[in-house]
Amino acid sequence: MNNSDIQTFLTLVNTKNITRTAQTLFISQPTVSRRLKQLETELGYTLMIRDKGGKQITLTPAGEAFVPLAEQLTNLWNRMRQIGDGGWKSSLAVGCTDTFNAAILLPFYVSLWTERRNNLSLKIATHYSHHLYEMLEIQEINLGFAFHYLDFKNITAEPLLNEAMFLVQPDAPDTLRREIIHTDELDPDNEIFVSWETQYEIWHNQWILRDHQPGLTVDTYLLLRELLQVNHSWAIAPFSVVRQLQKDTRIYVSRIKNDVLPPRRMTYLLRNKNESATISRVTNLFIRHLREFLQIQYDDVPESVHIYEP
């Protein structure tokens, strides 16, 4: 089994087409077929089935099960090559949600990148919370940050921080400019809704939705930022997102006046219980630097952001 065969298989998984795979890898179609056959012969089972025309492929159950293993083999192969090239770096794959990446981890990544701390090679992935648990379970990532607590046998979910929620509007002449606002004072049809986490959704259903639907639902920081430029729009967001919005655009921020305030957004630090000693060392180092960074970033607002001790 060699890396070329594995790479050809993974490219076929993505393209589902022999011709496109050959074009992507700059090889001939017979070479694609030969590499796949070599891999199947060595493994002893069929990975893919061709259609009648011979160009389109479909994964067998065994092929689907082999995909994550092939990805892990590719990562190991690349790391072994780095050692041989004398360019070894500690490698870490980190996964988290879009808004946590944009509002909290992005400036942290910048500091790591510019300082080149500890010769660390980072792979950053953005996914929904439940996908992060699944990716960590098969060790496709080494570390995750999620807003939902899920019970997975091989994963620990440790509270990292929680944040107060604020109401944000465009900084425009006709904005309702009050330090404290009740959500009943705003038109629900103009709301930009983000599903921050489960408890927030419950609160939102009780205090805002009632018989309405949000005017717009988004799931990325970029969409939230751009849509908050529309007059009369409004949203509720955790402190870290609000602070990043203040850096990126002009917004008006208010506290929430409702009798029951929205629950603070909790972020969980996810790790695989079966991580290797090498991954554990690199992960511990990454987390230590991150905690130091968070303490500096939010030291002036302890009422808005609470950072949990390890």
Automatic annotation (TrEMBL):
It comes from the Bacteria. InterPro entries: LysR_HTH_N, LysR_subst-bd, WH-like_DNA-bd_sf, WH_DNA-bd_sf. SUPFAM superfamilies: Periplasmic binding protein-like II, Winged helix' DNA-binding domain. Belongs to the LysR transcriptional regulatory family. PANTHER family: HTH-TYPE TRANSCRIPTIONAL REGULATOR, HTH-TYPE TRANSCRIPTIONAL REGULATOR GLTR. Residues 1-58 form the HTH lysR-type domain. Transmembrane segments: none annotated. It comes from Eubacterium pyruvativorans. This is DNA-binding transcriptional regulator, LysR family. GO terms for molecular function: DNA-binding transcription factor activity; transcription cis-regulatory region binding. Signal peptide: none annotated. Keywords: DNA-binding, Transcription, Transcription regulation.
